[in-house]
Write a structure and sequence with these properties.
165 residues, alpha/beta, two-stranded antiparallel ribbon, 4 helices, 8 strands
């Protein structure tokens, strides 16, 4: 999936602890409809999705069919093994539309094969500003016709100069 989501191996992949992420999700959206689950891959027929124009009908439909609507993807995407966190707010409020404190669940950063060397110090600076200083930084490699992650060879950026604000 690096070609699709990882800027053709130039980007990064963030690895989160599923349990911590789920706890943060449950705590932040305590009064809303929450749908944390794995994606189900099968043939999708768009004609099965009804056209609704009333907000109450839409909410009711989503409440009754949320897994069908939010947790289903075409079978062509099965190799990604995706997990989603979906929130359907019951009331419009001024709360954030993103998961707060997500950095608490971050456990690793994986750099793509073609990640620009010039940005590695930026990654270390980012990591040094997070509460968890034990976040691993690794780079994907291609050996013997396979993509591999050498978790025993973590990048060491101690030669980077980190400028404090």
């Amino acid at each position: 999936m690096w070609a699709h989501y990882g800027q053709n191996h130039k980007g990064v992949c963030l690895v989160f602890d599923e349990k911590i992420l789920n706890n943060l999700f449950q705590e932040q959206y305590i009064n809303d409809l929450k749908i944390p689950d794995s994606i189900h891959y099968e043939l999708i027929k768009t004609s099965e999705i009804p056209k609704l124009n009333d907000i109450d009908k839409i909410y009711k439909y989503l409440e009754e069919n949320n897994k069908e609507f939010f947790l289903k993807k075409d079978k062509d995407w099965k190799p990604e093994s995706e997990y989603r966190f979906v929130v359907i707010k019951k009331e419009q409020d001024d709360g954030p539309s993103y998961l707060e404190n997500i950095d608490q669940a971050l456990i690793a950063i994986i750099l793509g094969i073609d990640f620009n060397e010039n940005y590695k110090c930026s990654i270390e600076q980012l990591r040094s500003n997070l509460p968890n200083k034990n976040i691993g930084v690794y780079q994907l490699c291609f050996e013997n016709g396979e993509f591999k992650l050498d978790t025993g060879n973590e990048y060491n950026y101690f030669d980077c100069m980190i400028v404090e604000n």
